[in-house]
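Friendly challenge for the regulars: who can give me the structure tokens for this chain first? No prize, just bragging rights.
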Amino acid sequence: MVYGDVTLVVDERDDLFYTRAALQAHRPAEGRITVQPTPASGSPAALAHDMLYALGKRLAPGPNSPDVWLDSVNPAWLAAAAWGVATGVRHVVVPRAHLLTIRRIDQLLAWRESTGAQLTLLWQKASRGLPPVLARVERRISGRDQFEALLAEPGPIPARPCFPPAAPMAGPAVVAAGQSPASRPRETRAASLRTGRPAHPCTSAMATAQLVHAVPAIEIASAEAAALAVLAHPLIAGALSVLAFTRAGLGSLRFTRDLDITGDVSAIKLHGVGHRHCPLHAVPAWARPLLAGARTHHRLMAHPPEDGVFAPVMVAEARHLRAHAGRLPRLDLSLPSGTLVP
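First reply, four minutes later:
Bragging rights claimed.
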């Protein structure tokens, strides 16, 4: 564990100043969020849910919630890590950290390790009660001026969302069949810039973008885009956003790989059965963070770029996708049974 990016703010007198400053520091657009732990929650994934809430995500309510799989610790923290990386969070402030269990402190430190974000913990009681894992933190501050200076540091905080670069592509995928543009057959060159024409089925989105124009995204109302943006699970949010701006069949997502999303998340390639029709679609600005979250989730699971990004939500007749789609009727994403085959 690396502790260089962990700061401990010791506030023995529980000065209200520190809590107020921490809450005012919550500025997601600048890459800094304040996570307020839910007091006395016995849920194992409670702190991960608090993190998701600070990231602007909302769990679907109810005992039969389609987000029930996020009640498990590992999926919940993985979702929080994916959103943190994809949206460019570089500094997380946690007030009242002295109330957290050792297990939840370990979870926070593991999240920081996986995202590379700076973590600031407010320990609002005497420092002699520090658990061993925090006693090893080298950077400690205890004054108002120091805390204000810490929150004002530009540090690693980005000004806009961070979209991770695409994984390196194999040689044959860069240009279809390993050919240069000059050596491609005449009919291929003539068709290369026609909107939505399928390229070689094994090419990536980046390679396909060199051959075809992306199909323009279907516009949706801002309220519908906002409803998709708050979905807690990155794969659910990414998958439903693709269906919303392409109106493609659910089965098209089955074959979508990491390398089918361009590095800047500006285009996505979908695949039909037998690769008879594999159009390239433009990704609208509102959907880019959602697809970035889905791709980051895929990479944090250490999947190779050839694996399907949305495969985990396509099992069991995609019931999680269908349940969330049913909660967004205005998007016309009811996904009746039988749509798993495009």
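Residues 165-200, 336-342 have pLDDT under 50 and may be disordered. Strands lie at 6-10, 32-34, 91-94, 118-123, 139-141, 267-269, 280-282. Your move, everyone else.
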